[in-house]
Amino acid sequence: MTEFEFTGTLDQGRSTTPFTRTIEGESLKHATEKLYSQLGSEHSVTRGKITIEETEEL
Predict the structure, then answer these.
(1) Residues contacting 45, CB < 8 A, separation 6+
(2) DSSP alpha helices (H): ranges in the chain?
(3) Contact criterion met (CB below 8 Å) for 24 and 30
(4) Distance from C-alpha of 11 to C-alpha of 3, rounded to nearest angstrom
(5) Range of the domain at 28
(6) Which residue(s) pair with 7 in the sheet?
């Protein structure tokens, strides 16, 4: 499996929080889905409030 590093922001109503997260996945699409799932669960935000600004394959 390949590791991908995602950088972006979370819109949490009154504030915008930056994030950097490393996710392991079979493909970029799979890793992106895992990222949305993890961030949405941890911060109670929908996919529309997660903005991925940069993706890098490690």
Answers:
(1) 10, 11, 12, 39
(2) 28-43
(3) no
(4) 25
(5) 2-57
(6) 20, 54
Say whether 38 sits in a helix, a strand or coil: helix
Q: Check which CATH number belongs to the domain holding 36 and give it.
A: 3.10.20.10
What's the whole-number mean pLDDT along residues 30-55?
94
Number of domains in the chain: 1
pLDDT at 42: 93
Letter for the amino acid at 46? T
pLDDT in tens, 42-51: 999 999 999 9
The CA–CA distances, whole Å, from 6 to 14, 19, 42 equal: 23, 8, 16
Contacts for 19 with CB less than 8 Å, ≥ 6 apart: 6, 7, 8, 9, 10, 39
